[in-house]
Amino acid sequence: MVLKMGTESQVEENPRKGGLRTMPFIIVNESFERVASFGLQLTMIIYLMTYYNMSAATGTSILGLWGALSNGLALFGAITADFYLGRYRAVAYGSISTLIGMIILWLTAMIPQLKSSPCSQNQHVCNGVTTLQLAVLFSSFGFMSIGAGFVRPCSIIFGADQLENKKNPNNQRILESYFNWYNASSGISTILAVTVIVYIQDNYGWKIGFGVPAILMFLSVLMFQIGSPLYIKVKAKTTENLVIGLFQAAVASFRKRNTCRPLSDCDEFYRWPLESDVLPPSKDFRCLNRACIIEDPQRDLNPDGSASNPWNLCSVEQVESLKALIKALPMWSTCFMIFVDMNVFSFSLLQTKTMDRHIFPHFEVPAASFSVFMIAALTIWIAFYDRVLVPLLSKYTGQPRGLSPITRMGIGLISSGMSIALSAITESIRRQRAIEEGHEDNPNSLVNMSAMWFVPQYALLGVAEATHAVGQVEFFYDLFPKSMSSIASSMYTVGTAVSSLIGSILVSGVDWLSSTGGKTSWLSSNINRGHIDYFFWLLSFLSFINFLYFLVVCRFYESLNDGSSRLSHVAEDKECDYRLLHES
């Protein structure tokens, strides 16, 4: 993720550095980090409920906040790497931070004093968790979030730095091959985390289950450092930051809100550096155009023509970038609900844990490994759509990618809502059977019902993410000017962070409201007494309302779809850079 504009980054010129020889170190670093991190997250709700005596709702809320922090810090990590640390140091520091967090978490499993004793079924009052125990736990989450915020947005681009050579005529092909292999390794790593690491935790306990990821993360740090002498290290630049430029445009327009100068004279608008497009600012959000008006050349400009105070005078490009961002916000806000739906995985884990998970008589799928069906559906759909549907649909729609980005986003929202509705129906059946079999007071008893009932829900969620995520990034690429290309992936990442926060607040609110008056909470840790199905129906209703909101927002973008947007010329012949898509 690169957030920069203006001059190129400075690179250490050394023909003996970089190249394919560095790829094993970088890809192994990312792969081991992914296996370790994702392997810890999948079953964390069980660990929190067992050893920290948290309710299902509280544990899910905390995990939501953890996810929000990790995704939110990714934007901070990318900016810090590009303009202060450099990508090499960002990945190195981030990897070490993640390792520290995993070691601390592993110590909570190894040292009894760092966690509470498990609460037995016959205990009416469980041992409380001390402030020190929670502080140690949350510090591990914090270190891992900081590490993820630096490693994930910077690792893939750091690898590209090693291969990029504009003098090589095969440069583009080499980079595309690298991105494909990198993403393939990420996918394999995620599958290993969902299967192997979860299996170890399920069968060998938390001491080994947390120890293996910590060892893998240590190997990740070690491999990355071994390759250090071979790396090309792009130096951090202190040039103008695009994100800061957006803030400057907003501040400058606010400061000039009372200006009486006309907004029609093209010669009075500031452009720096010299832009090829001499059109005046667009008429959308005309109040922002004041930010690029030159009121007094002697006061506003330096001798070289640059702005004397960038917080009082901004370029036309900065203003247009801010307008593009504002235009994107309504559509961006429609994505929150789909990620909220995905963040209820913790409750699905509790459900599948009480069901028959045997595929074969002697093979039982771990409860946390059911998300592999979502990953499989996502992968299959992307390949099927790209290789089969795109050639067929493009003949009828005239769209080079088969369906427009907005249409695919809509399909994703519908698929997500259908998945949650199916989850509600399945949970109603599961809960009813549990009560009929006499398990109302024992949430750990197995219900005579196959967990394969949940496969369609996971598959629909995979299709939802595949259609919506790629469609959203492509939509922002078409909407934004070229200088804001990387903002597309940034908005996706920040969107997942906001969604995690919304999901956490929603879970806490539903838990509190449904338990008022001494009633059993919908999200009770005893899922046979609670009503997770009611919560899923609530999410289904919110998904439906969100889809109606999406349809209203689509009307706002009709002018963009017919090519009348002022920025449409920027998006012509521009392919979506899928490597910038958030790796979920």
From TrEMBL:
Cellular-component GO terms for this entry: membrane
PANTHER family listed in its UniProt record: OLIGOPEPTIDE TRANSPORTER-RELATED
Main subcellular location of this protein, as a coarse class: membrane
Protein name: Protein NRT1/ PTR FAMILY 1.2-like
Keywords linked to the UniProt accession: Membrane, Transmembrane, Transmembrane helix
Gene3D superfamilies: MFS general substrate transporter like domains
Keyword Membrane belongs to the record: yes
Organism encoding this protein: Solanum verrucosum
